[in-house]
Design brief:
By secondary structure, the chain is α+β, with helices and mostly antiparallel strands. It folds into 2 domains: 2-17 and 166-344, 3-Layer(aba) Sandwich (Collagenase (Catalytic Domain)); 20-78 and 105-158, no CATH class. The protein has helices at 2-15, 191-195, 209-214, 221-238, 264-277; strands at 24-30, 33-34, 58-65, 68-76, 81-90, 96-99, 108-113, 119-124, 130-135, 138-144, 153-158, 168-170, 181-183, 199-207, 242-251, 287-292, 302-304, 316-320.
Length: 356
Amino acid sequence: MFPTGIFLMSVLISQMQGRGIVGVEGQELVHPKKLSLLQKRDLERIHDSDTPEEYEEELLYEIKLGRKTLTLHLLKAREFLALNYSETYYNIKREMVTRHPQILDHCFYQGSIIHEFDSAASISTCNGLRGFFRVNDQRYLIEPVKYSDEGDHLVFKYNVKAPYATNYSCEGLNFTKKSTLIDAKNIEEHKVEDYHKEKFIELFVVADEFVYRRNSKPQNKLRKRIWGMVNFVNMIYKALNIRVTLTGMEIWSAGDEIEIVSNLESTLLHFSTWQETVLKKRKDFDHVILLSGKWLYTSMQGIAYPGGICQTLRSCSVVKHPCNKIQQMQPNPIPAISEESETSMHTQQPTSGRIQ
């Protein structure tokens, strides 16, 4: 089921600390080479100011990995932010400040490996190449040793070890309407009608004060990490005709808005109540994730309600943020998303769209 899948991916993203994550096997030092790319100037994408973009629309990188040479073909991602995307912070007086930035440029890409039929990539080029790529069933992580896209990089093999999601779905096709959790076997009649329709999920991410303090410098560091997470999730689910967009993020920069305790069930209950009684009064979304770092001494990586996306009060999860650095995009399979579970997605056009 989708919410379980997105929860598991978020946990893996937060876990990612190079060789410390479960499933990583060894490492190899590589030197990506940026290849020249003949580009035709797209007049329709020139901004009114005619200011050139810092990050190119299309990129090619050659990576020699073992005895094989891989060529990454990357296109700038334009579907992971919603048109009504917003960012909320709190000033020193604990006053809420919300803005709707006009995102004209960014460093997040999706793509594939040239001459590899079954491949995918989700890469950030902000400070070197950082992210995930896959060739057939073999998944890799890449991260820079230094902040350069052509300097030394480490590549890790990654073997997925993730539990399967429960095979349940929501009765309704629109999360804004009241829906109930039912056995997926009872919704057979919806399969043919809904299988080919594009579905939409609007995601909202909240970061607690601890996460903010650990990622406040440079100023946009936390934003880039959250964007990288959503870009990766969107790449994965796009293959299933499901579009995941980030509708907003909220940073508790002046103190937590809920009580975060070591008991994860209590923290999840506090968060679910807050998002239903406070957040949803000023923002529409389908699922909300709390990135928290105040319960690091517990062994659990996160918590969510089973089938929560079918119930507005429970469509939330809490994910552990480690003390040391997070990598931006991590590989994770889609855990058992069946045809039945796809009926729980939006089938009408939401407020998400392309970044202009």
